[in-house]
Structure formats: structure tokens, C-alpha cells
């Protein structure tokens, strides 16, 4: 077993989260055995060999990792190896047009070079000459 990672075989379910900004750090939340207690939280570092070996021993580990890459959060049932992706409630869904508009706005706001101080309507445009 990995350094400090629990044996989850007797637990009904656990929750995995991908740590924001990395693809190698996972957060594991194990519900408490007693009612009213807080959940136990563990960090699974997939760059460490013991943690990676612990993760690979889970049933249907590949399916779990696929769900984590798609959703960022997954509910895992150790007895069956089943995993279910959980939607992130903080994530805002956007249409393709909204994403393109936002990306274009970021590019336009970062104008650089010698034209920074010149108003947009005053700029001269190069036109191809016909010969």
C-alpha cells in the first residue's frame, strides 16, 4: 500500500478529485465510519511509485482514470470497481460560439507593438496593388 493511503476495500464508496492545475495529483475522500464525523482526505501523487502502485491495484482503475479526466470528480465503489463521473457544479458550460467569442476577446485585448496608442479607426490598411 502507498505511503499513508488507506485500505478502501471495506468502504461503500469514495470520492476522487483531480487537483486543479495538475494531472498527477488526486484527492481521495473517504467517508467516516461514524455518523457525524468528517471525511478523511488523502493526497494521491501519481508521480510517486507507491501511490501509483496503490492506484493500479484498484479494480477497473482505467475506467476510474477515464472518468477523472472527463469530469474531474468521480464516485468510486471499491466492492464492484464501478465509477461514476460527477459534474463540477462550479464549472460554467459554454457554447462553442461563446468560447470563440471569449478567446477572440482575450486576443484583441492583448494588442501589442507600435499600434497600442493609435485608435482602431485611424489605422491605415495595406491594400494590394493591382499591376
Helix content: 25-40%
From the N-terminal CA to the C-terminal CA, the straight-line distance is 77 Å
The average pLDDT is 76
- Rg result: 24 Å
Order of helices and strands: EEEHHEEH
SS-based class = alpha+beta
Major sheet: arrangement of strands = 3-2-1-4-5
Low-confidence stretches: none
Main sheet attributes: strand count, strand direction, barrel closure: 5 strands, antiparallel
Record field, number of beta strands:
5
Would you mind describing this structure in some detail?
- By secondary structure, the protein is of the alpha+beta class.
- It has a domain of 73 residues.
- It is built from 3 helices and 5 strands, in the order βββααββα.
- It has a 5-stranded antiparallel sheet with strand order 3-2-1-4-5, with helices on one face.
- A hairpin with a 6-residue loop joins strand 1 and strand 2.
- The radius of gyration is 24 Å and the shape is elongated.
- It starts with 13 loop residues before the first strand and ends in a 22-residue tail after the last helix.
- 9% of the residues are buried.
- The model has no long low-confidence stretch (mean pLDDT 76).
Amino acid at each position: 500500500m502507498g505511503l499513508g493511503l488507506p485500505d478502501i476495500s471495506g468502504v461503500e464508496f469514495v470520492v476522487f478529485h483531480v487537483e486543479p492545475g495538475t494531472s498527477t495529483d488526486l484527492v481521495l475522500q473517504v467517508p467516516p465510519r461514524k455518523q457525524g464525523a468528517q471525511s478523511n482526505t488523502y493526497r494521491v501523487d501519481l508521480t510517486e511509485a507507491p501511490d501509483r502502485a496503490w492506484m493500479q491495484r484498484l479494480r477497473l482503475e482505467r475506467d476510474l482514470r477515464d472518468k477523472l479526466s472527463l469530469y474531474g470528480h468521480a464516485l468510486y465503489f471499491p466492492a464492484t470497481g464501478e465509477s461514476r463521473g460527477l459534474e463540477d457544479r462550479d464549472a460554467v458550460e459554454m457554447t462553442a460560439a461563446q468560447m470563440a467569442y471569449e478567446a477572440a476577446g482575450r486576443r484583441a485585448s492583448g494588442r501589442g507593438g507600435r499600434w497600442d496608442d493609435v485608435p482602431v479607426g485611424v489605422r491605415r490598411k495595406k491594400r494590394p496593388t493591382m499591376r
